[in-house]
Amino acid sequence: MTITDTTPRLQAPPGPLRRLLGKQPFGLGLALPYIIFLATVMAYPLIYAVYISFFDYVFTAPGMHIDHPFVGLENYRTALTDPRVLESFRNIAVFLVINVPLTVILSMVFASALNAVTRWAAAFRIAFYVPYVTASVSLIGVWMLLFSQSGLVNTILGPLAPDPSWLVNDALAMPSIALYVTWKQLGFYILLYLAALQNVPKELYESASTDGAGIVHRFRHITVPSLRATTMLVLILSIITGANLFTEPYLLTSGGGPDGASTSPVLMIYQKGIQQGNPDVASAIGVLLVILVGALSLASTRLTKES
Amino acid sequence: MTLTRRALGATTLALPLALAVGACSRSAVDATQAATSRGPIRIWVSNNEQELAWGEAVTAAWNAEHPDEQVTLQEVPAGASSEEAISAAIVAGTTADLVFNASPAALPDWVRAGGLVDLTTFEGGREHIEQRTGERARNYAEDDGEGGYYQLPWKSNPVMVMFNKEIFDAAGIDPGSPGMDTFESFLEGARQIVGSGASHSALWPAPTSDFYQPWFDFYPMYLAQTRGTLLVEDGATTFDSSDGLAVAELWRALYEEGLAPKEESTDDAMTMGTTAMQLAGPWAIATYKDQLDYGFMPVPSADGIAPEETITFSDAKNVAMFSSSRNRLTAWEFLKYATSEEADGKLLELSGQMPLRTDLLHTYPDYFAENPDYSSFADQADRVADVPYLSGAIEIWQRFRDEFSASAIFGKKTVAEGLHDAAEQIDSLVQEGAR
Questions:
Q1: A40 to chain B: which residues are within 8 Å by CB?
Q2: Chain B: nearest CA to A134, how far in angstroms?
Q3: Would you call B268 an interface residue with chain A, using a CB distance cutoff of 8 Å?
Q4: Of the candidates B6, B27, B200, which has its C-beta nearest A21's C-beta?
Q5: Are B194 and B337 within one domain?
Q6: What is residue B152's predicted lDDT score, i.e. its pLDDT?
Q7: B244 and B321 inside one domain
Q8: What ipTM does the predicted assembly reach?
Q9: How many CB atoms lie within 10 A of CB A240?
Q10: pLDDT 10s digits, B372-408
């Protein structure tokens, strides 16, 4: 009688190298160039910026050694007690409050409309996408002409034109930038929603129509919930790009004007770190911005997460 | 989680590699060896047409005589201002050997970063600089003029008031004798220009927040008003005073009454005729000579100072040698060659900018006889003052600009408050050694 051993064979536990590299080390090898790229241009600068923010740091030429004493939270204190820095964070809050909801709502509505259009659909899509692919520098030149004191917008508005004009008005400078960025970026977000809309089954709309649902009901109860994952992406991307605002206040309102009313944290980082040679305080502002953007992105993820 | 652990492992491998790559790009030069070394060098000059033409002419002449020490001309790297591009290059160790466009405001920080070479370490260095520029050269030296020279004072663009004669005529102001040498008459003239409809604005300086803008609105008038008192002297600010207040009040009135727009011009306001005046240096002659009929007058002061006594902002640009230079002896000899009487004459001829050397009018009499427009600038070039030599100068000028914008341009506070707040912040920065 033959006795068959049916006990499953226990495999030897994988070594630490195997555990680290996984079952397919070749796959990791393929990913390595991108990982090196990320480590070089993302992880290294980020870690270095966090490091700099805790030291009294200045950039030096090769071979020049200057003491960089540890200063704890001093750079953060300097940043957070600087009224210009605080103003820049307030400005960006104003920007996000206008830009993010407007971006989400308009891109979703326009994408739905474009999805329904059959004639000239490609032309409309391109029209929305053109501002996104055009260099901000050239578009800003056009907006400056439109919104200047004697520009087209004020000419049309006549006596209703704001005084001071849009871009030199404390209350209107940041909203003007928010509108500009919304308009410029809209094409990209419309594209994201259009792609997502292709996955919404047409039968859902047909059934709802049969049940008597109107266009608003169908949009609210089918389109909006179906696009939840894309909305989360749009929210996060618009928060990140909005919080990193630089070109627009730098060019459209001539360096964050009027009198700092449109300064952004990134503009402050540029001024302090690059122009004024204070990379330590600039890094502290950068770290605070990363924390803020991270928190807002997390909050928006929670907000749009399906229960 | 396996994926996270694996990603962490890969990053652990990749990060040291990235750090090594970063470290390799920065290597220091052996200063002792470089100081006596000859060979090819690179120079940076401003990217404007006239200075490039000068650079090409001078390097071509040098290269013909020095086949083993060839000089390569490059435009200074582009940036919002050349100072920040140069600052970045100093840190990266990628600077040329010489730069012929250094702002004195940025120099102290480049010295602090170890990016420049003291020119007095070369034989005859101090003598060459001081013989060429005279007593004024000491304003650009370390330790209140007693220390080393990390810059050779090269050229100035004395700031004067340029005006459009046709607009003045249309406004009923005599272009031959505008009579706008006091703050009151200047303001009255500005009101006349706009009130008569001769021009949209009287003058249109950039009302932007750039740190260097005070050099083209407040500072020239402040220097005239105080007969050459710098923004900071003896470790303390000077502008929170009746003189500073008088200048700032003039600007406040110009902005408040709409004589100077609070918006940046979307085109060249002088060329378009949307403004009648601008504060400019001799560079403006080459720019506008075919476009408008212009005149120049000295910057005004509260009670009016005779033109031959008026001091204005120099707007100097200097030459500096970078510590990344491996052939410093060649660089020094080229620097002397490019700042010789002959090369300076070429600079004057091609760009109209004033070499920072003594007695220009008598050194180049033929040029000024042929180009009388430049004579007033040559005369003015003997009475100029520059920015104070301060570590952290750019941050200091930025603080000044922020407070000037808040008070004089946008009227959020009184100019007295603005000047006081700026003085308080700047005094604190100066005391800290500007960080």
A1: 14, 18, 21-22
A2: 20
A3: no
A4: B6
A5: no
A6: 96
A7: no
A8: 0.83
A9: 13
A10: 889 989 999 989 999 999 989 999 999 999 999 999 9
DSSP assigned state of A209 = H
pLDDT of residue A20: 75
Do residue B217 and residue B144 come from a single domain? Answer: no
pLDDT higher than threshold 50 for residue B434:
no
Select the residue of A39, A40, A255 nearest B210 (Cβ to Cβ): A255
Count CB-CB contacts under 10 A for residue B61.
16
* Residue A1 pLDDT: 47
Number of domains chain B contains: 2
User: What residues of chain A lie within 8 A of the CB of B87, using their CB?
Assistant: 59, 274, 277
In angstroms, the Cα distances linking B33 to A95, B36, B325 are 55, 6, 11
List of domains in chain A? 74-304 (1.10.3720.10)
Tell whether B205 lies on the interface with A, counting CB pairs under 8 A: no
CA B239 to CA B225: how far, in whole Å?
11
Write out pLDDT tens, residues A275-296.
888 999 999 999 999 999 999 9
Contact A36 B14 (CB under 8 A): yes
Question: Are B82 and B46 in contact, with CB atoms under 8 Å apart?
Answer: yes
Asked, for residue B127, whether it belongs to a domain, the answer is yes
Q: Extract the residue ranges of chain A whose pLDDT is less than 50.
A: 1
Task: Output the pLDDT for position B26.
Answer: 60
Q: Are residues B255 and B324 in the same domain?
A: no
Question: CB contacts < 8 Å between A and B, how many?
Answer: 149
pLDDT tens, position by position, B119-171: 999 999 999 999 999 988 998 998 877 889 999 999 999 999 999 999 999 99
CB burial class (10 A; 0-12, 13-18, 19+) of residue A295? exposed
pTM of this structure: 0.87
Of B371, B328, B335, give the one whose Cα is nearest residue B55: B335
Name the nearest CA neighbour of B84 among B154, B283, B92, B42.
Answer: B92
CB of A276 within 8 A of CB of A82? no
Q: Whole-angstrom Cα distance, residue B1 to residue B143?
A: 61
Residue B245: inside a domain, yes or no? yes
| Smallest Cα distance from B90 to chain A, Å | 5
Cβ <8 Å between A44 and B19: yes
For B:119-178, CB contacts with A below 8 A are: none
Q: Check whether the bond before B355 is cis (ω within 30° of 0).
A: no
Instruction: Give domain status of residue B96, yes or no.
Output: yes
Q: Are residues B210 and B275 located together in one domain of the fold? A: yes
CB B360 within 8 A of CB B352: no
The verdict on a CB contact (< 8 Å) between B114 and A64 is yes
Closest-approach residue (CA) in chain A for B9: A20
Distance in angstroms (rounded) separating the CA atoms of residues A275 and B402: 15
Interface test with B, best of A276, A278, A283 (most B CBs within 10 A): A276
Domain span including residue B198: 160-314+389-431
Same domain, B59 and B201: no
Domain harbouring B55, CATH code: 3.40.190.10
> Is-contact A154 A71, C-beta < 8 A?
no
CA nearest to B132, candidates B144, B109, B147, B149: B149
B87 & B230 share domain: no
Please state, in angstroms and rounded to a whole number, the distance separating the CA atoms of residues B402 and B210.
9
Apex B263 CA angle, B257 and B264, nearest 5:
130
Instruction: Look at residue B267 and tell me if it is in a domain.
Output: yes
* Interface residue A101 vs chain B (CB under 8 A): no
B14 shares contact with chain A (CB less than 8 Å):
yes
Would you give the distance in Å from CA A218 to the centre of its chain? 30
Same domain, B251 and B347: no
A274 in contact with chain B, both atoms CB, cutoff 8 A: yes
